[in-house]
Amino acid sequence: MRLPLYVLTVGGGTLVQCVLGPAVSIGGVSPDIPVVLVVLLAIRRGPEAGCLVGFALGLVADVLAGGPLGLHALSKALVGFAAGALPRWFLVSRPVVPVTAALLATVTDGMVRFALLQLFHYPAPFGELLSRVIVPQAGYNALLATVAVVVPTVRARG
Predict the structure, then answer these.
(1) What is the mean pLDDT for each group of 10 consecutive residues in the chain (158 residues)?
(2) Which domains does the chain have, with CATH numbers?
(3) 105-143 burial by CB neighbour count: b if 16+ within 10 A, else e?
(4) Could you tell me if 103 and 139 are in contact, meaning their C-beta atoms sit under 8 angstroms apart?
(5) What pTM value is reported for the model?
(6) Cα–Cα–Cα angle for 36, 121, 32, rounded to 5 degrees
(7) What gap in Å lies between CA 139 and CA 133, rounded to an integer?
């Protein structure tokens, strides 16, 4: 049964995001650690697990953020499902695939959230949001994914 793994991922991911996210922000941009966790878990466990964990992490983020309930849950569930399908098309044992997936998942997550916020007449212009939040956060998440993928590989060889 993989339920303890999923519960640990949701609890640990939320704790790490709340404690370390603001502490390691650069220029006001903090990483979206749950997106990286969702992508890495989905690649390893499949689209259903990615969708489930993405939904749970997103729901917790929605409750903690106080915004529209379900916004993060839907975007992270979609990202998790898409990332879980990657092993069908790509050789995910290469480190470039999970890192690129984390980068693209962050951009997709931000764009889906922006599109959903437009239903509530969110006032921020898309170009500014893309250049000041989504793209820097995607780079940050790609860096985190690189560390998360490469460090265990180096330790296993050494």
Answers:
(1) 80 88 88 95 95 96 90 96 95 91 97 93 90 95 94 76
(2) 3-157 (1.10.1760.20)
(3) bbbbbbebbbebbeeeebeeeeeebbeebbbbbbebbbe
(4) yes
(5) 0.91
(6) 10
(7) 10
